[in-house]
Write a structure and sequence with these properties.
Helix content is about 65%, strand content about 15%. By secondary structure, it is an alpha+beta fold. The N and C termini lie far apart (about 135 Å).
Length: about 230
């Protein structure tokens, strides 16, 4: 029976998680398998690989053929190097102790590279977070300055409307440049309401002045009731 070492997909949609299994080459991908050798999680960086090293080497030595992706995983974990060294021991090119020493040296170097990559990723993530926070602080400071400038400009316009001083054309232009379209619309609406209120007050005062002589004449012509 031809056997293959391959991945069996698990996990939810968009978050694939794989089992490394030995299965009959005629079985469907996610169907029955002979033995589970480990797991592979590509969602982490570096990828998380859990592998039964001795059992995997045993299956490889028995002739189980890994798929392309699984072969890369086994090479990453040193299984293919172990197979190569065992072949050298079988041919008498080196002793078993020498093969173990070479494998251990390779494992230590590989672990150092993986740790260095993990540390670099962690440092890059921390640096990116610091840069993001610094950018947010700068943006907030700029917003605060802009709001303060707008408030000062609006306060100057309000003071000039009260008769203290009339704004120059340059002040009006700078104020329009500071205000957003929404703020300009709100200020225009407020000015319209104020103008309508002033006109209404003037009309009421004129009517009252016009009616006053008539009221006085009526009061003179109408004698007071006798006590």
């Amino acid at each position: 029976m031809a056997t293959k070492i391959r991945l069996a997909r698990h996990g939810k949609k968009g978050y694939a998680f794989y089992h490394i299994v030995v299965a009959d080459s005629r079985a469907p991908r996610d169907g029955k398998f002979i033995e589970k050798l480990g797991t592979y999680n590509p969602n982490t960086n570096p990828a998380t690989i859990e592998l039964n090293f001795d059992r995997t080497v045993d299956w490889v030595m028995k002739g189980a053929q890994p798929t392309d992706t699984t072969r890369a995983i086994l090479s990453y974990k040193g299984v293919m190097l172990k197979k190569h060294l065992l072949g050298g021991v079988a041919k008498g090119a080196l002793t078993e102790s020498e093969a173990d020493a070479r494998l251990e040296k390779w494992m230590n170097e590989k672990a150092g590279k993986v740790d260095a990559k993990a540390n670099k990723l962690s440092a890059d993530k921390a640096a990116a977070e610091r840069a993001r926070k610094a950018g947010e602080v700068k943006a907030n400071e700029e917003k605060a300055k802009a709001i303060a400038a707008k408030k000062a400009a609006i306060a100057g316009v309000a003071a000039s409307e009260e008769g203290e001083s009339s704004p120059s054309d340059e002040d009006a232009t700078s104020l329009e440049a500071l205000l957003t379209p929404q703020e300009e619309e709100a200020m225009a609406e407020a000015e319209t309401v104020a103008q309508v209120a002033a006109e209404t007050a003037e009309t009421a005062e004129a009517v009252e002045v016009a009616e006053t002589p008539a009221k006085v004449a009526e009061a003179v012509e109408t004698p007071a009731e006798e006590q």
